[in-house]
Specification:
Rossmann fold, alpha/beta, about 250 residues, globular
Length: about 250
């Protein structure tokens, strides 16, 4: 369990849900983790979990919608750890609403936290990633592949992230920086919120997952991130890995 020993990872949205699970999986393989999130107390709690695992966790307050906060967080990461090898973009504001009713304000919030947030962190980390021949893993969503009602804004943001991933992989490949995306289905606070706001939707989704269960942010999604960040995936870039129990392609 030392595939990432000596590596430093930046995880946005690291204070809960998918980001927390990914951070724990990376730490279990020996990486040190900078945890970026809007609510620092949540990042503090995850950092304490990583410390208990014997890993180094650095909690940093950061809204990916702010260029200044992103730049400051990346600078703090380099100051603390000396370099950056892995960037995982998991932060994403989510607002549900039909195409007819969703507001421009809500759309802007999803755009700024998701695609623009990815762009900001990727640009801020680029020099470090080029120096370390590093890896970027962006969180997409199957909702951009298999549409669902009330998900227009979220799906637009996530598909933009996948396009950004592919273009960056093309441009950065000659510098040995790999960029990939994951489309996960996992039980997170965001999923719980969706299920609460859409009664019965969770049962409908679960019934359509060929493997018959929801994914786990750490053992399922986190393990996939570890693989993509490791030398085992050194010839993989520009791809989207579906970590969804077969939900999007097999139904």
């Amino acid at each position: 369990m030392d595939r990432l020993t000596g590596k430093v990872a930046v995880v946005t949205g690291g204070g809960q849900g998918m980001g927390r699970g990914v951070a724990r999986a990376l730490a279990a393989e020996g990486a040190s983790i900078a945890l970026l999130g809007r609510t620092k107390s949540k990042c503090d709690a995850v950092a304490a979990e990583l410390d208990a695992l014997g890993a180094r966790g650095l909690p940093l307050a950061c809204d990916t919608g702010s260029r200044a906060e992103v730049d400051a967080a990346i600078a703090s990461t380099v100051e603390a750890f000396g370099h950056i090898d892995i960037l995982v973009n998991s932060a994403q504001t989510t607002v549900y609403g039909s195409v007819r009713k969703i507001s421009e304000t809500d759309m802007a919030a999803m755009w700024e936290s998701g695609p623009m947030g990815c762009l900001r962190t990727m640009q801020a980390c680029f020099d470090q990633l080029r120096a370390t021949r590093g890896s970027v893993i962006n969180m997409g969503s199957g909702s951009s592949i298999l549409p669902a009602p009330a998900m227009a804004g979220y799906a637009m943001a996530k598909e933009s992230i996948r396009v950004l991933t592919r273009v960056a992989a093309l441009e950065w490949g000659k510098m040995a920086v790999r960029v990939n995306a994951i489309c996960p289905v996992a039980e997170t606070p965001g999923w719980d919120d969706f299920a609460t706001k859409n009664p019965g939707a969770d049962e409908v989704v679960l019934a359509q997952i060929p493997l018959g269960r929801m994914g786990d942010p750490e053992t399922d999604v986190g393990s996939a991130v570890v693989f993509l960040a490791s030398d085992e995936a050194s010839y993989i870039t520009g791809t989207t890995l579906m970590v969804d129990g077969g939900f999007n392609y097999l139904r």
